[in-house]
Fold M15 family metallopeptidase.
Amino acid sequence: MILLSDPRVAEVPVHECGEPLVEISSVPAIALDPRERDAAGTYGRVRAGALERLRSAAGTLPDGVGLLVVEGHRSSTEQARRFARYEDRLRRSGITDPVELRHRASAFVSPVEVAPHCAGAALDLTLVDAEGVELDMGGAVNGHRSGDERSCPLDAPGLSARARHNRDLLARTMSGAGFVNYPTEWWHWSYGDRYWALITGAACADYGPV
Ligand SMILES: C[C@@H](N)C(=O)N[C@H](C)C(=O)O
């Protein structure tokens, strides 16, 4: 498994294409959840090309199932704050080696310089039914925050058949539209950033930090 702290991610060149960040709410078929809302509304935006792919992904879901986005773009300041906070949490649990700290932290928060959310390329999202109720995914979005790290990997063992079915549906839907998953987090998908380029074999990333 390649983590975001892997030096190969930072080595991927970025040929910034200049696409704007656009409002996810401009696509009525995609729901936006306010739990990560920030004052500037950054969380509700993503690159135009990524939103187009998300729109097409939503169109392939079975009737009565939709996408619920929890977070899109994130500022570099906020990313750095979250990374430092998570490293602190790990430090308090007894990890002191800086290399180990960075490696372990990057399982759940990206180092700022390669962060897919800061490039407007990443979406934290889940599936909902026709009433907007979240489907059983076998664990919450950002479940690591409440200490449930076991259920976070896309391929976490021990899920119920229903949760496995729902994760597989999300994975087929997002992969089919060109996104790649961060394997430690079933809810995190990105398109066009450095991690995406490394995993897909693209020569460069289209989106750098914005
Ligand atoms: C913490 C989670 N919501 C998240 O965004 N994780 C990835 C790895 C990130 O920080 O880019």
